[in-house]
Amino acid sequence: MSNYTVDMIRWRLNAVMAEYFIGTSELAEELGKLPHHVSNLKNRSDVPRLSGKQLANICNALNRILIKKNQQPSVTIADLIDYQFDDAA
After folding, report:
1. Which of 9, 32, 34, 61 is most buried, taking the most CB atoms under 10 A from its CB?
2. Cβ atoms of residues 56 and 21 within 8 Å
3. Where on the phi/psi map is residue 32: left (φ > 0), alpha (ψ -120 to 50), or beta?
4. What's phi and psi for 11, nearest 5 deg?
5. pTM for this prediction
6. 3-class secondary-structure state, position 10
7. What one-character DSSP code corresponds to residue 31?
8. How far is the CA of 77 from the CAs of 3, 18, 82, in angstroms?
9. pLDDT at 2
10. Cβ atoms of residues 59 and 74 within 8 Å
11. Taking a C-beta distance cutoff of 8 angstroms, is the pair 28, 62 a contact?
């Protein structure tokens, strides 16, 4: 796979967590995972190999945290993955 294809699709978990002020430990606890696993996941720029169920679990955990913070649960899979059209591809 060439670099331009990788650059077209980005993993945005870190940006979503920052936007909603969600900490690594907070998400790890909600997911039932160790904090370093969540840290590794959020610090990626490429899209990790995750199943649909795993993506849904991440969205659900983020939304449960937002509900606990009295915020509207609005995180979707589309928020976690960013696609930029590249007509040269």
Report:
1. 61
2. no
3. left
4. -90, 125
5. 0.86
6. strand
7. H
8. 23, 16, 10
9. 45
10. no
11. no
Cα separation, 89 vs 68, whole angstroms: 43
Q: Residue 36: what pLDDT?
A: 97
DSSP secondary structure, 35-70, as one string: HHHHHHHHT-SSPP---HHHHHHHHHHHHHHHHHTT
Rg (CA), the chain: 14
The tokens describing 33, both together, are: 């995972």
Alpha-carbon gap, residue 54 to 37, rounded angstroms = 13
Close Cβ partners of 21 (under 8 Å, ≥ 6 residues apart): 69
At 82 the three-state DSSP class reads strand
Distance CA 13, CA 61 (A): 12
Task: Give 75's DSSP letter.
Answer: -
pLDDT tens-digit readout, 33-68? 999 999 999 999 889 999 999 999 999 999 999 999
For the chain, how many residues are written? Answer: 89
